Amino acid sequence: MAAESRVELSGLVLETEIGTYGPDDVVPEAHVLDLALGIAPELVLVAEDSMAAIFDYDPLIAELRRLAADGPYETQERLVTRMAAACARQPEIRSLDIALRKRPVHGGTGELGVRLTLDAEGVTALRAGPAPG
């Protein structure tokens, strides 16, 4: 049986400061994180109802929130890079998709963001390379 599984987080509003804005610029009211982490199916298809049998994502979410608050950041890309590195440090994570967006943008409406998707090879390369600060 072929199977894949993910841990998914959507719509997490982060306490962060990203960007530099002038007096006439639209300043974002929120930065929002969506995250999908590929993990081994055996961490979801479990025989027992036990935290020891699954991937405990709570410490990772706490670390991502800490990184967000660690600003200020000039760019969303820098925060996404640091978040990807934090995810790659978790051996259970096989792949990842991180989307960070801000709202509102130009004209006071809409959302604008960046997305990074890494397959297993990309996560392995990030693990092996120097950790982005």
Short synopsis of the structure:
The protein is built from 3 helices and 4 strands; from the N terminus they run ββααββα.
Description of the structure:
It is a single chain. This protein has a single domain, classed as 2-Layer Sandwich (GTP Cyclohydrolase I, domain 2), CATH 3.30.1130.10. Helix content is 26%, strand content 29%. It has three helices and four strands. Strands 1-2-3-4 form a four-stranded antiparallel beta sheet. A hairpin with an 8-residue loop joins strand 3 and strand 4. The radius of gyration is 16 Å and the shape is elongated. The N and C termini lie far apart (40 Å).
Residue windows where pLDDT falls under 50 for at least 5 positions: none
> Which class of secondary structure composition applies to the elements?
alpha+beta
Major sheet attributes: 4 strands, antiparallel
Report the span from N to C terminus.
Answer: 40 Å
Number of helices: 3
Oligomer: single chain
Please report which band the strand proportion falls in: under 5%, 5-15%, 15-25%, 25-35%, 35-45% or over 45%: 25-35%
The largest sheet has its strands arranged as: 1-2-3-4
N to C succession of SSEs: EEHHEEH
Keywords:
Dihydroneopterin aldolase, 133 residues, four-stranded antiparallel beta sheet, 4 strands, alpha+beta, dihydroneopterin aldolase activity, GTP-CH-I_C/QueF, GTP Cyclohydrolase I, domain 2, FolB_dom
Task: Draw up the topology in text.
Elements: E1 5-14, E2 30-39, H1 58-69, H2 76-88, E3 93-103, E4 112-118, H3 120-128
Antiparallel strand pairs: 1-2, 2-3, 3-4
